[in-house]
Amino acid sequence: MTDRLSELTATGVAVWLDDLSRVRLSSGGLDQLRREKHVVGVTTNPTIFAKALADADEYDWQLRDLATRGVEVEESVRMLTTYDVRWACDVMRPSYDGSHGVDGRVSIEVDPRLAHETDKTVAEAKALWWLVDRPNLFIKIPATEAGLPAITATLAEGISVNVTLIFGLDRYSQVMEAFLAGLEQARANGHDLSKIGSVASFFVSRVDSDVDKRLEKIGSDEAKALRGKAAVANAQLAYERYCEVFSSDRWRSLADAGAHPQRPLWASTSTKNPDYRDVIYVEELIAPGTVNTMPESVIHAFAEHGEARGDTITGAYDAARKVFTDLESVGVDMSDVIDTLEREGVEKFEASWLELLDGVRKSLAAAGQGTGRPGRAAQGNAQAAQQAGGNA
């Protein structure tokens, strides 16, 4: 039988899982994906945690202990989520060691309500880094205006960063600048650059979801012919910028000091439109030095019928630029698309975080009253959070 995921890995794409739960950890499911499906990293977000805490009794003992101690809700959320992330880091440690620190990473996100507050974001990143206490951790920081200096400051502390919620090319260029500046400061601060990792999470399917709605509203044949093309073109042009930045003299100076490049990570890779191929955001975004984080369903779909056709990005830059030109000609304002997606992305994760807090609050109350199975108390809230946030 063809090992399609092995073929994908051979092209230079790192396969990561976009999910985490205590059930997945305690059952050995995550380790099985690592051993059998070539999964070498894990990403999480507030929606994932909200669903995980609602769906499993494995959290009940910890909730009872937290309730007995009278721990506040926000600290309880941190205790619950960092427990899972620490465990996942240990599961993925062989991938981390085997790749000399490049893969085997597990991400945890700062409170999304801090997305527009630089100093608080840096402070929370440092706290999470200390709390999980694993070298293969990534701290997720959103690529907002306030997030950019936070990215630099966090990297300067020697802390590895997953930059999330990137939608546009100009913002992506700013993220790479923040990364380079952070590593330069880390070097000046005496940190070992070979121990610092980073990825830049460039969101994919959400771009098509927004653009396709606009194209449908325009309604012309020319507009409808462009459906399903914006997201891949956007990511392909992002990879072009990545190649330019990480072939510069500035980068070579850091590489000579042991630094690893900030790899582009394709996020939001589940297909939202059932008319599109379910692995389109994997097959069309294959290139060396990239990461693709997928829900388990997409991993299995690619293992079953995905095609690793070699590099599908590098030779596509001109065609991608034409897609952007054509979108503009039919009346799609991509700047507005990107601004909308960034704003909505932060808002959705904030909503998921609030639902998570509310669910844990109810679970703690149930645990304190000895009503049993407190983890189930949050289920309705988690389902609402899932609808609000969606996959990363």
Major sheet attributes: 8 strands, parallel, barrel
CATH architectural designation = Alpha-Beta Barrel
Here the CATH topology equals TIM Barrel
How many E strands?
8
Strand proportion: 5-15%
The mean pLDDT is 93
Tally of separate domains: 1
| Mass-distribution shape | globular
Given this structure, which CATH class is correct?
Alpha Beta
Helix content: 55-70%
- How many helical elements? 19
> Which segments are poorly predicted (pLDDT under 50) over 5 or more consecutive residues?
371-392
The ordered H/E elements are HEHHEHHHHEHEHEHEHHHHEHEHHHH
Could you say which structural class the secondary elements and strand pairing correspond to? alpha/beta
Span between termini: 31 Å
Brief account:
This protein has helices at residues 4-10, 22-26, 29-36, 46-55, 60-69, 73-91, 93-98, 118-132, 147-156, 169-188, 205-218, 221-224, 230-245, 249-256, 280-283, 296-305, 317-329, 334-368, 379-389; strands at residues 13-18, 39-43, 105-109, 137-142, 161-166, 198-203, 263-267, 290-294. It is of the alpha/beta class and 392 residues long.
Q: What does the model show?
A:
With 392 residues, the protein is α/β, with parallel strands linked by helices. The protein has a single domain (4-373), classed as Alpha-Beta Barrel (TIM Barrel), CATH 3.20.20. The chain has 19 helices and eight strands. The protein has helices spanning 4-10, 22-26, 29-36, 46-55, 60-69, 73-91, 93-98, 118-132, 147-156, 169-188, 205-218, 221-224, 230-245, 249-256, 280-283, 296-305, 317-329, 334-368, 379-389; strands at 13-18, 39-43, 105-109, 137-142, 161-166, 198-203, 263-267, 290-294. The chain has an eight-stranded parallel barrel with strand order 1-2-3-4-5-6-7-8, surrounded by ten helices. Helix 8 (118-132) links the parallel strand 3 (105-109) and strand 4. Helix 5 packs across helix 18 (334-368) and helix 6 (73-91) packs across helix 18. The longest helix is centred in the C-terminal third of the chain and has 35 residues, at 334-368. The protein is globular. The model is unreliable at 371-392 (pLDDT under 50).
